[in-house]
Design brief:
By secondary structure, the protein is mainly alpha-helical. Helix content is 60%, strand content 6%. Strand 1 and strand 2 form a beta hairpin. The N and C termini lie far apart (116 Å).
């Protein structure tokens, strides 16, 4: 018996010792962590959680508003950047009226102030129309689209609103790109990261990894990307997401008995060209001839001839956005404004890199309200108001500052329409309804009081001027933006790009250096630095910069394409294949990427694959003489001499005197005729 007890004691003793050792290790680590936290706190290391929302508003875990005494106010890290510095009473007055205006940068008031935006004018008008307190609270978020607005609404309904006013539809493609990146992370990892963000040890590690964090842009925190080309199917997916987000927002509001006013959103149709076009046609040569003839006729002010040519080009390639836009210009010149309106609307919808709402979004807004207008859910057709006001019904720069943001006049129109809409619904009850002349005077007063020329305003003017091709004036506007805010990253980047593309390498170098200093991991800045390195034949530096750009954002086409091109320039075509394959996979409609991919396939002896890629490049851009040249070369390598000769002749037609194409034509002609000199 004693032996057995001893045996048991012998077994238990090591277990107890091991347990004590484990507890000692845990206690030591805990003490070390606590001491580290205390030391880092004393050194003033800020928490990641206090510096920003790691989920960028894609999670309901973090509110936009925080309580500061007697008011709720936009939290500091997004105040004045993503949202206006907005506040409202924590305890809503019994007789008070509270409206939240939700949307993207147009609702925010960009490039104006929130006082000049339609929300500020509406606030002033309602205050003069009722004796009780009025709060029209601007919650427009830069780059916010319907998905994040539906999340935001879950917070706002807790603040006892009398109505939610929704003005959204332009950011769906911007938000989709960023949401895809956020959504790729598992929910468990998101929760772990959010927890770590409240520790100073993790925050210190982040600070070491990123010693020079990017300064918040005054314009966008979720950057726009115009590199992706969207197919019709992808656009429908975005539209479905929009409808789903809208339905969720309405359901949230109705669950809390909060009325909702949905606004359709107008865009600049007449004065803003589409960013990108996808060409799908069975007869690219005929299309190219019709398209080129239409442009030539338009330049000669032969509007009827231009119209006929563009109508033929549209028949051959109905999905080509630029053709639709140029047809609109021809119709406008002929004073056929109905034709122009339809063509401009089609051009916006067909834009392969859309930054404006699709017509389908406005249709979804109207459909969401059903058949009738009720105080609980109604639609205000702002687009119809703008169309009725615009000259000949063609919405352009008179009402839209750039591509989507209303001018001051546009904001006045929206405010007046909303005021009358709310008065008609009885939300709120007004003691006196102002007439239009009174509203006009009040709107001008409100906008004059808030008049300012911010860096954002100058930057936006630069974007408009650049889009219109007025590069000198655009550079002046960007310079004015930098006078107001020397670190305005968008103005620095656009200035650097324009100067570089003009060949002013010395001028560009200054701004490229500023980009690198402010945000060394900005993809646009890295690409510009890589371009400079390639110009100087510093291939290793260029590839290092491009690899960093790819690490920062692997969804961008340009760094992949440039990396492949750099490898080819170093006579490394086998290595160039993979980055160029990635570029074409990211953007199947990128003609230059397709061509480069086809060229390296040809140079590595993969002639059939090369033919497919180069033919696709020709279909995407039939006017590119270089693409026809390489199509001739690949056919020549396949011993398809007649087809090679035709491709060389087309290259010469597009670029008379093209020496490489002429040599190819003579070479194939010589072989076809069995040694006889070609004509």
């Amino acid at each position: 018996m004693l032996q057995r007890i001893g045996d048991e004691l012998d077994v238990k003793q090591p277990q107890n010792i091991r347990l004590a050792q484990y507890l000692l290790v845990i206690a030591s680590v805990t003490v070390l962590l606590l001491v580290s936290e205390a030391v880092l706190w004393s050194l003033g290391v800020p928490l990641v959680a206090d510096q920003g929302d790691a989920s960028f508003g894609f999670s309901s875990d973090r509110t936009v508003f925080v309580r500061e005494g007697d008011v709720f106010r936009v939290r500091p890290e997004v105040r004045g950047t993503v949202f206006n510095d907005t506040r409202f009473e924590a305890d809503k007055p019994v007789d008070g009226f509270r409206a939240f205006v939700l949307g993207g940068s147009s609702a925010y008031g960009f490039p104006w102030s929130d006082k000049q935006a339609f929300s500020g004018i509406l606030d002033a008008a309602l205050q003069r129309s009722r004796s009780g307190p009025v709060e029209v609270i601007n919650v427009g978020g830069l780059s916010y689209a319907m998905h994040r607005l539906s999340i935001l609404s879950q917070e706002l309904v807790r603040y006892s609103p009398d109505v939610l006013i929704i003005y959204s539809g332009h950011n769906e493609f911007v938000e989709r790109i960023h949401f895809a990146n956020v959504n790729a992370e598992s929910e468990v990892m998101r929760k772990v990261r959010r927890g770590l963000a409240h520790t100073r040890l993790y925050s210190f590690a982040v600070q070491l990894a990123h010693p020079e964090p990017a300064k918040a842009s005054e314009f966008l925190t979720v950057q726009r990307s115009l590199t992706h080309r969207y197919t019709t199917e992808e656009k429908e997916e975005v539209a479905e997401d929009f409808r789903a987000g809208l339905a969720e927002l309405i359901a949230t509001a109705h669950a809390h008995k909060v009325p909702v006013v949905l606004c359709t959103v107008p865009a600049n149709l007449a004065d803003w060209q589409p960013n990108a076009s996808l060409l799908a046609t069975d007869d690219p040569k005929h299309w190219q001839q019709s398209f080129a003839a239409g442009k030539d006729a338009l330049n000669r002010h032969a509007a009827e001839e231009a119209r006929q040519m563009f109508e033929e080009a549209r028949r051959l390639a109905p999905g080509h956005a630029e053709t639709a836009y140029l047809l609109g210009q021809a119709c406008e010149a002929l004073e056929d404004y109905d034709c122009a309106r339809r063509a401009y609307a089609d051009a916006a919808d067909l834009d392969a890199s859309p930054e404006r709402r699709l017509s389908e979004f406005n249709a979804a807004i109207v459909a969401a309200a059903g058949r009738g207008q009720t105080p609980s859910l109604s639609v205000l057709d702002v687009e119809a108001t703008f169309t009725a006001t615009a000259a000949h019904g063609l919405i352009g720069f008179d009402l839209i500052e750039d591509y989507v943001h209303p001018t001051l006049k546009g904001h006045r129109l929206i405010a007046k329409a909303l005021y009358h809409h709310l008065a008609q619904l009885g939300v709120p009850t007004l003691e006196r309804v102002m007439n239009d002349p009174e509203l006009d005077r009040l709107a001008v007063e409100a906008q004059s009081a808030g008049q300012q020329r911010s860096a954002a305003w100058f930057f936006n003017q630069g974007v408009v001027l650049e889009n219109a091709g007025h590069l000198d004036q655009a550079l002046k506007a960007y310079a004015n933006a930098l006078d107001v805010a020397p670190d305005y990253f968008g103005a620095i980047g656009n200035t650097a790009r324009i100067l570089y593309e003009r060949g002013d390498r010395a001028g560009a170098a200054k701004y490229i250096g500023m980009m690198a200093e402010l945000n060394p991991r900005d993809v646009g800045g890295l690409v510009l630095q890589a371009n400079v390195a390639l110009d100087e034949k510093r291939f290793e530096d260029a590839m290092r910069l491009l690899q960093t750009a790819i690490e920062e954002d692997p969804t961008r086409t340009t760094p992949w394409m440039m990396l492949g091109s750099a490898l080819r320039d170093q006579h490394r075509p086998e290595e160039a294949i993979e980055p160029l394959r990635r570029a074409t996979a990211l953007d199947p409609g990128h003609a230059e990427a397709r061509l480069l991919y086809g060229v390296v396939l040809m140079e590595t002896g993969r002639f059939d694959e090369a033919q497919r890629e180069i033919e696709q490049a020709v279909r995407l851009d039939p006017s590119a003489a270089r693409a026809h040249l390489y199509l001739g070369l690949v056919h020549e390598n396949q011993n398809r001499l007649e087809e090679a000769s035709q491709a060389y002749q087309e290259a010469l037609r597009l670029r008379p005197g093209y020496q490489d194409a002429e040599q190819g034509r003579q070479r194939t002609g010589h072989q076809i005729t069995g040694g006889s000199p070609s004509p």
